Structure formats: structure tokens, C-alpha cells
Amino acid sequence: MEALLRAEHLKKQFHRNADGKHAVNDVSFEIMPGECLGLIGESGSGKSTIAKILTGIESAAEGNLYFEGNPILGKHVRKDSRKNMQMIFQNPKSSLNPKMTIGQNLDDALRYYEKIPKTERKVQCEQILERVHLPKEYLLRYPDQLSDGECQRICIARALLRHPALLICDEATSALDVSVQKEIVELLQEVQREEQMALLFISHDLALVSHVCSRIIVLSHGEIIEHFQS
Q: Which part of the chain is the ABC transporter domain (predicted)?
């Protein structure tokens, strides 16, 4: 089976690293279709930088990156090359537009992906809320009227509108209370099974990652130091 995502010898250095150390140094790994891969490391280990390189938020100084068999690094890469890759961030409220209702946030994302009538978009927004176990009445609320856990459910819903092949979760539960964290993890596992998508779960919590993922990569100072089955 061909890897869904393949990273080869990725390197990234920020100018603030005056000592010459790399934020990401010669990192290579694969994510297979439908699998859940864990990426763990302490703060500053480079794990979030890797996520940003995968999604195109940051560029890599060196290396190759392939998604669905196509190269996705470089100046001449198609703009839609990452259309089947979505990311969920640590702070859900900062990921949503506070001046827009939940319905508008979701509709805005849907309009970006699909050229479909407004009435059909509304139906899809209602259906996607059901997928993350929220009532459709939430479409009329604003992010500051929701809890952090509810906002993270909205962010998951927004990502699912694309039906991604790969969902990247960058510390997606670390800002939440323990009880809410458990609910979000269970939701992610549920939608992964239903969508049959791959999941890259990034965290500093080994126990949590071991519970969620079948395979784990340990990162330290920008380098992979261990790789094992959970």
C-alpha cells in the first residue's frame, strides 16, 4: 500500500536559532491511509513546525514532501494540492472568526471548498453539526457564547466539511479540561473510523497519544529519536 503522506529529510531553521540548531533536522516519516500516527515531544521539539510544513503554513529549507502521491513542496506546486488535508489547532476560539456566527464560520469554509447553492450549504452545515454532536441551533451562536470544548467541536466540523484524507491535530486537546479532552478524543476516534481518514495526532502527552495512536514518533530538538508501535 502506498503511503498517504511521505516526508523525506525535512529541514527547517529559524533565524532566532543563533546557535545553528535546526527547528526540524532531517526528519523523515510516512502516514498510511486510515492510520493514526502520533508525534510527541516537549515544547520546542519541532513538532508544531512539522505540522506547519505539512500544511504549507511554513516552508521547508530542504527535503521532499508527497501527499496522495504528489509533491507538495516548492514554488510550482498546485494551490489545491493540500485540499484533502485539514488541521485543527490548540486554541479553538482563536481559530474561529469571533464576529461571525457558527453558521457563518462553517458556511464561509464551505463556500471556499464548494460552489453550491446557499440552501444546500445550510443543510450541510446542519448535518455536520450533528456529526460532532451539537444541535443545529448552534449555527446562530457566536464563538464567545460557546465553551472551549464546543468550539473545538466546531473546528472539527469545519475540517470534516472537506472530507479530508488526513486530519492533523496539533495539541488539539491540550487547552481543554481533562473531562472535555476525553470527549474530544473520543469524537476524533469516531469520525476517523466513519470517514476512514488518517490522523496525525501531535501532543506532549505520551499516555494520551499511546491511547489514540497505533504508531508513535518521538521528536527531540528537531530530530526523530524514537519510533515505536503503541
A: 5-229
As a whole number of angstroms, the distance between CA 30 and CA 8 comes to: 9
Where do the H-state alpha helices sit in the chain?
47-55, 102-113, 118-131, 148-160, 178-195, 206-212
Kindly write down the DSSP assignment for every residue of 56-88, as one continuous string: TSS--SEEEEEETTEE--STT--TTTTTTEEEE
Output the average pLDDT for the chain.
Answer: 92
Angle between helices 102-113 and 118-131 (to 10 degrees): 110
Split at pLDDT 50, 70, 90, the class of 114 is confident
CATH number listed for the domain at residues 35-61+82-214: 3.40.50.300
Question: What are 19-66's pLDDT values in tens digits?
Answer: 556 799 999 999 999 999 999 999 989 999 999 999 999 999 999 999
Domain ranges for the chain: 35-61+82-214
How far, rounded to the nearest angstrom, does the alpha carbon of residue 36 sit from its chain's CA centroid? 12
Give the integer Cα–Cα distance in Å for 214 and 223: 21
Written as nine digits, the cell of 5 is 503522506
